[in-house]
């Protein structure tokens, strides 16, 4: 399926529809395979001990899949997560943004399936891996 929303359009959609995320989450790049989403880490994303919280990483993975789906079907606000799993593999590097590389595995009429690898910026080893399924509302 062709790309119908590039990074700029997705970021504008997020700002308009989800103002609560502020400037924390954004889309860096959209490709034929998926996209790269960013968590601009600040003190609000940290847990005791100074590491990035699991809920912040989960939100990044969820946002990446949501935006990957929208990049193909357009601004359908009611696409929702129906299944999610996440594996936390190592502590993120302190003081660096997190990047989520999302790959769409299947985009059907009613379901989308994707994998996400989350890395600390400029680090090769993933800090988390997620698999998610999204339900796509009827179009038309």
CATH architecture: Roll
Chain oligomer state: single chain
Q: In percent, how much strand structure appears in the residues?
A: 35-45%
N-to-C terminal Cα separation, in Å?
17 Å
Return the CATH class: Alpha Beta
Radius of gyration: 14 Å
Tally of individual helices = 2
Mean pLDDT, all residues? 94
The shape is globular
Strand order of the largest sheet: 1-2-4-5-6-3
InterPro entries: HotDog_dom_sf, PAAI_dom, Thioestr_dom
GO molecular function: acyl-CoA hydrolase activity
Domain Thioesterase: 49-123
Keywords: Hydrolase
Short key terms for the protein model shown above:
single chain; 140 residues; alpha+beta; Thiol Ester Dehydrase, Chain A; six-stranded antiparallel beta sheet; 2 helices; 6 strands
Note down, in words, how this protein is organized.
It is a single chain. The chain has a single domain (7-135), classed as Thiol Ester Dehydrase, Chain A (Roll). 22% of the residues lie in helices and 36% in strands. The chain contains two helices and six strands. It has a six-stranded antiparallel beta sheet. The model has no long low-confidence stretch (mean pLDDT 94). Residues 49-123 form the Thioesterase domain.
Compose a concise summary of this entry.
The protein has one domain (about 5-135): Thiol Ester Dehydrase, Chain A, CATH 3.10.129.10. It is about 20% helix and about 35% strand. It has helices at about 5-15, 55-75, and strands spanning about 25-30, 35-40, 80-90, 100-105, 110-120, 125-135.
Q: Secondary structure elements and their pairing?
A:
Blueprint: H1 7-17, E1 25-30, E2 34-39, H2 54-73, E3 80-88, E4 98-107, E5 111-120, E6 126-135
């Amino acid at each position: 399926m062709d790309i119908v929303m590039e990074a700029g359009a997705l970021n504008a959609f997020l700002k308009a529809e989800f103002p609560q995320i502020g400037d924390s989450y954004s889309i860096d790049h959209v490709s034929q395979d998926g996209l790269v989403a960013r968590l601009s880490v600040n003190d609000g994303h940290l847990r005791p001990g100074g590491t990035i919280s699991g809920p912040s990483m989960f939100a990044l993975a969820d946002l990446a899949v949501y935006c990957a789906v929208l990049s193909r079907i357009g601004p359908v606000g009611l696409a929702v997560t129906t299944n999610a799993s996440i594996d936390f593999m190592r502590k993120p590097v302190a003081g660096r943004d997190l990047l989520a590389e999302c790959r769409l595995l299947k985009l059907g009429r009613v379901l989308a399936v994707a994998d996400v690898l989350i890395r600390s910026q400029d680090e090769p080893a993933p800090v988390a891996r997620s698999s998610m399924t999204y339900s796509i509302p009827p179009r038309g």
